[in-house]
Amino acid sequence: MSLAGKPKQQAEVADRGPKVFSAANVWLEEQEPEVRIAWALENLPRRHVVSSSFGIQSAVMLHMMTQQVPDIPVLLFDTGYLFPETYRFVDELTERLNLDLHVFRADMSPAWQEARFGQLWNQGEEGLKIYNKMNKVEPMEKAMASLGAGTWYSGLRRSQSSTRTERRILEFQSGRVKFHPIVDWSNRDVHMYLKAHDLPYHPLWEQGYVSVGDTHTTRKLEDGMREEDTRFFGSVRECGLHLDGS
User: Which of 18, 151, 179, 228 could form an S-S bond across to 161 if both were Cys, CB 3.0 to 4.6 Å?
Assistant: First the structure.
């Protein structure tokens, strides 16, 4: 690429920040995800990591990233309340794609959290905020610090919710570069990639789930619901991982 025809060096991208990001995003929007990733690997700050919820369509990003960086650290933030099918899906994809999996959890166990605070997810938006910070945001911050992450790849897509419609491919979040290679993909794009590479959906896809997180805040898609309504009782969409300054 470049903003002028040739790839920018990592230091220049990092130092110039918003200016380079704005120009780069214009070019990146016209590229295929694999080209976007190749550009990011050459130009963006190291160390490169990818996070995954091992949700319905997670095999796409995991496959796409490991095709170019087989040993890229894969970060999972385990709340202790994932579906049994999710844990088995983690095992399946880790073996199949030979993932370098790193699992991070809250310092306090789920049982201890419930003993001290009760079921936070049933305590309104404020309870959910505390729960997500403790079980997702803080483990994410620990992961990024311990691995020395410079660029974080994520499979966020604009079509997933109203809170993601303005997301860019290249962003800056909470002190590090954030990269969304498939942010403009539709559900059909995802399906075609999975089919082309013989990759599985999450097992709960067949049972009517379109988004999967914790057992207590995930619902099947029903008539009249949006995808974002299937998580957190429809009251919030983001768990905090993908919000700046979380």
Answer: 228
Q: Exactly one of 56, 65, 137, 239 is catalytic; which is it? A: 239
Peptide bond before 47: cis, by omega within 30 degrees of 0? Answer: yes
Q: Which residue, chain included where needed, has tokens 């550009």? A: 39
Specify the pLDDT at position 2.
46
Q: Where are the alpha helices (DSSP H) in the chain?
A: 10-16, 18-28, 33-43, 59-68, 84-97, 110-117, 124-132, 138-147, 187-196
- Determine the average pLDDT of the residues in 123-140: 92
For residues 149-170, one letter each, b for 16 or more C-beta atoms within 10 angstroms of the residue's C-beta and e for the rest, the string is bbbbbbbbbbebbeebeebbbb
Distance CA 176, CA 25 (A): 16
Backbone angles phi, psi at 210, to 5 degrees: -110, -10
Which of 170, 164, 167, 159 lies closest to 25, judged by CA?
A: 170
Asked about 185 being catalytic, the answer comes back as: no
Domain at 21, CATH number: 3.40.50.620
- The per-residue pLDDT for 3 is 39
Q: What's the predicted TM-score (pTM) here? A: 0.85
